[in-house]
Amino acid sequence: MPELRKSPIMERWVIISTERGKRPIDFKMEKRTAKGGFCPFCYGNEDKTPPEVLAFRDPRSAPNTPGWKVRVVPNKFPALQIEGDLDKTGDGIYDMMRGVGAHEVLIESPDHKLNLAYLPDDHVESIFWALRDRCLDLQKDSRFRYILIFKNWGEEAGASLEHSHIQLIATPIIPKRAIEELEGSKFHYQLKERCIFCDIIKQETKEQKRIIYQNEYFMAIAPYASRFPFETWVMPRQHVSAFEQTPSEWFAQLAGIMKTVLRRLDIVLDEPPFNFIIHTAPCKTPDLDYYHWHIEIMPKLTRVAGFEWGSGFYINPTPPEDAAEALRNVDYVNGSQETVKQKVEE
User: Fold this and answer.
1) 81 strand-pairing partners
2) Catalytic member of 165, 188, 279, 294
3) Could you give the CA distance from residue 268 to residue 261 in angstroms, rounded to a whole number?
4) Residues 55 and 63: beta-carbon distance below 8 Å
5) DSSP E strands, 197-325
6) Overall domain count for the chain
7) What span, in angstroms and rounded, lies between the C-alpha atoms of 324 and 26?
8) What is the DSSP letter of 100?
């Protein structure tokens, strides 16, 4: 029997369609093949991108030359332009402003073939440090109200370049999705004087059904009202409202849990395309008692079609409890991929 499940954070319903139930093997995808050709993000092509705004590199190397480990550059084709004033205007019932903002690309590694899941632990940690540094710097601009950090991996997930990278877009308005999440979290706090995300962590710890992996500072779960098969959230186990406020000693474990989750998704689903998004508090807000930053990872295994667009419901053919179990039963040793239950009893 299908179930309707409501998100505890927002007014959003999900249909867990057990009648269409799908196991991991049902999502097997064709292996992507490298396209080859010129890549502006590869080592030695530093002059083919805009000048870097941040790089972790060999101190003996010069900016915009080889010698870097992680590099952040302005997007060559930005969604928003850094120059200019907002110039808010109205035209009858219509409102508009200039497309002012910042659009940057973090190139994760000089190696074209490696992605976030297979880089060394300290390298992944340095990626999150670079994202934090860019958030802190962009927040100094009074025009920006929100910084959205996201990753598209694979052509099906919207990646226009194969070389693994993460994007940051600073916007002069708070996005609708962020407002909905903030308002839902605030409503829960006003009723119960508790953070909804902290309550979720407490309940998932008690039930153990949807936990995928956890370490001292972070927990990965398949959310109760998952919109998509194998949707995964990574959350700090202690309350922090903004990504850039994360204590420095937590970053190594953030890198560790992200690598673990992404590798397990690769093993169970044969390297699926995916998106991840860092959900965080708006710029220059004080510590929010009611909000809790987190990362949402969404493998691209199904398509949003007419019913979803028309109703606002999502149809998920894989119960999150089944997805969490599948991802829990996976292990990897010394970088090689091995499964505890033969890819969940294929």
Assistant:
1) 100
2) 165
3) 11
4) yes
5) 211-214, 218-221, 232-236, 274-279, 294-299, 314-316
6) 1
7) 16
8) B
The backbone torsions φ and ψ at residue 17, rounded to the nearest 5 degrees and listed phi first, read -90, 80
User: How do residues 218-247 score in pLDDT, each as one tens digit?
Assistant: 999 999 999 999 999 999 999 999 999 999
138: domain CATH number is 3.30.428.10
Among 233, 197, 246, 206, which residue's Cα sits nearest to residue 320?
A: 233
Residue 28: predicted pLDDT:
63
Element (H, E) at 165: strand 165-171
The pTM for the full model equals 0.90
Long-range Cβ contact pairs of 83-88 (< 8 A, separation 24 or more): 85/143, 86/143, 86/172
User: What count of other Cβ atoms lies within 10 Å of the Cβ of residue 150?
Assistant: 15
- pLDDT tens sequence across 115-128: 999 999 999 999 99
- pLDDT computed for residue 290 by the predictor: 97
Residue 303 has pLDDT above 50, yes or no: yes
H or E element: which one contains 64?
none
Structure token digits, residue 232: 């995964």
> Which residues constitute the domain of residue 171?
3-31+39-84+93-345
Nearest to 128 by CA among 334, 280, 231, 264: 280
Looking up tokens 């097997």, which residue turns up? Answer: 28
SS3 120: coil
**Which tens digit of pLDDT belongs to each residue from 172-199?**
999 999 999 999 999 999 999 999 999 9
Q: Determine the pLDDT at residue 30.
A: 63
- The average pLDDT across 12-34 equals 70
Closest C-alpha among 135, 132, 156 to residue 144: 135
Bridge pairing between strands 165-171 and 102-107: antiparallel
Q: How far apart are alpha carbons 148 and 171 in whole angstroms?
A: 8
Q: Long-range contacts: 234-239, Cβ < 8 Å, 24+? A: 234/258, 234/261, 234/294, 234/295, 234/297, 235/197, 235/200, 235/201, 235/292, 235/293, 235/294, 235/295, 236/292, 236/293, 236/294, 237/201, 239/195, 239/197, 239/198, 239/289, 239/292
Note if 165 is an active site residue: yes
Residue 141: CB partners within 8 Å, gap ≥ 6?
102, 170
Query: Residue 25 has what pLDDT?
Result: 61
